[in-house]
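Let's practice the habit of predicting before peeking. Look at the sequence and jot down your guess about where helices and strands might fall. Then scroll down.
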Amino acid sequence: MLHALAQGRDLDDRKVTTEIAAHVLPLIQDLPKPEEREFYIQRLARFLRIDERAFLSAQPRAASAKPRRRLAPSQGTTAETHAPAGAPMAARRRIEAHVLTWLFRKPELIYRMDRLLQQHGLATLEAEDFAYTDDQLLFGLIRQAVEQDETDPHAFVRQSLPESLAGFAGELLSMSEGTEVLEDKLLEELLRGIRRMREETASEKRTQYRFLQEEAQESGDLESATNYQAEVLRLTKLKRLLDEFDRQMSLKRMQ
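Done guessing? Here is the structure:
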C-alpha cells in the first residue's frame, strides 16, 4: 500500500509525506493490539524517513505507554482469576503471570514441561515466549536456577533476583499463597497457557510477515518477499502443531 501511495511522488516533499501519513495512520489506529500499532508505525516512519516519535501523538493514549500493572492475589488456580488492582489486566499478561507464579514456586516443573513440549514437536520454553520484559528477566533466572546444581533452584532465584524485580516477584508469590493443586493438573494448566502465548505470538508475527511480504513484492524485492513467505509458512506449520498439541491435551483430559 505504501509503495502504491508513494509511486511517482517525492518523499522529500513534506507535503507528500504528510498526506501519506494522514492516509495510513487511521488504518494503523484501527488495529486492535498495541504491538501491531507500534510495529506498523515503525514501518511507516522508516518508509517516509521520519522519526517515529512524530507519530506518537497520533497513537491512542492507551497504547502510548505500558506501565507494569500490579497483580492482585489470586482467588483460584486458573490464569483467568488473576485480576489486577484497579484496571482489567490484558489476557496475555494474565497468562504469563500465571505461568511464572508456579514456575517461581516450583522451578523443577520446567523439566517436565520441556519434555512434553518436545514430545509434540515443539521447542522448549524460552524467555522469548514471554512478551513482557519483567517476565522475560524473571523466567531467565528460573531457567538458570534449574540448570545449576549448587543451590536449591528456588533459593537461587531469590538470591539472584535484582531489586527492580523484587516487588514483581513478591506479587507473583502472593497470587498462589495458600493454594495447592495437583501437579499433573497444574502442569496441564501451564502447558495450555504456554500454547496460548505461542499461538498469539505466531499470529502477530504472521500478520507482520505478510505485510512485509506485500511491501517487498510491491517494491520488486522478490528475494525478500520469498524469505517473508517462508516465515509465514513456518508460522502456519507452528500453528498446526499447537492446535494438535491442544487436541492431544483435550483427549487426555477426557480419558
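How did you do? DSSP finds ten helices and no strands in the chain.
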